[in-house]
Write a structure and sequence with these properties.
It is built from eleven helices and 13 strands. It is α/β, with parallel strands linked by helices. It has a single domain, classed as Metal-dependent hydrolases (TIM Barrel, Alpha-Beta Barrel), CATH 3.20.20. The strands form three sheets. The chain has an eight-stranded parallel β-sheet. Strands 1-10-13 form a three-stranded antiparallel β-sheet. The chain is globular, with a radius of gyration of 19 Å. It binds N-carbamoyl-L-aspartate (NCD) and zinc ion. N-carbamoyl-L-aspartate binds next to loops.
Length: 347
Amino acid sequence: MKAITIPRPDDWHLHLRDGGMLQGVVGHSAAHFARAIIMPNLVPPVVTGQQAAAYRERILQALPDGSDFEPLMVLYLTEGTDPDDVEASAKSGLVKALKLYPAGATTNSDSGVRDFDKVIPVLERMAEIGLPLCVHGEVTDSAIDIFDREAVFIETVLDPLRRRVPGLRVVMEHVTTRDGVDYVKSQDADLAATITTHHLIINRNHILAGGIRPHYYCLPVAKRESHRLALRAAATSGDARFFIGTDSAPHPTDLKENACGCAGCYTSINTMSLLAHVFEEENALERLELFASRNGPAFYRLPVNEETMTLVKEDQAVTFPTGFETAAGHVTVFDPGFETFWRPKSD
Ligand code: NCD
Ligand code: ZN
């Protein structure tokens, strides 16, 4: 038997939704993760400090009894965001980041930014106070091929924006390409990236070859194999600029198995087992704690969790439900397509 003990991990990019879905999913994250950066793309989005405080309260209410899971709140950046509200919400400790969605880039992103000139004053204030900007890094121009949207975003939006607002701290969320990894590595410590569990495991063939598999469809869409390998190398390298953000994004199964299926993979429940599997495959188990437990807090300037998690490699494969019911419908769990033997246990 093999076991490793790491500081309790955090999830630096998570969708918990609201209402019946929140109720149905939050326990999965709370079982393994101490804290999570909570995405604000509700309908309507979480735009103000007041809305973030109310959403945080709803999350705390939905937690299982006795859980000390800490939701780290994020404001959705709009062209109307008030820099003073941002600063006050950050200084009170409530808000840990803002989220930039280019308008129309993904699920519930209609209130996102169209004209970047309008948000420069907010970004300048964030640079001043050191508040990170989480970025959904895809252009939305229909003329750009969906597999190129991340690379084009870096060149035409992100790099010019970072030059315009020096000192702005940015997380490229769910980076999916070698271009993204290389860009992060070429910059200073003001730029970091999250990588999802599923992008370490699937490439675009998993979505499209031998039949269309809606449960592997997410945004940014998985790219070709060489990109997946670049993500694996970055995640397992120990480089402080890369850390886990599951982007676990629950949708009712019938809205994914649909003529126009929603984007999002649900991995909150099996992420830690799958990460241990991936890191073992890459001979990097000793660096799992950097990716899952240390690099994220360092970037967000938060303490590493004092509690620990032990991952035990068992003789029998660990099984997960293929899906589960919530008051907002059935959710299908991400199927990695292989057996895993690693079981996480909170110490
Ligand atoms: C996310 C969602 O469903 O909210 N979907 C996804 O495919 N990742 C939105 C997002 O993070 O892009
Ligand atoms: Zn997301």
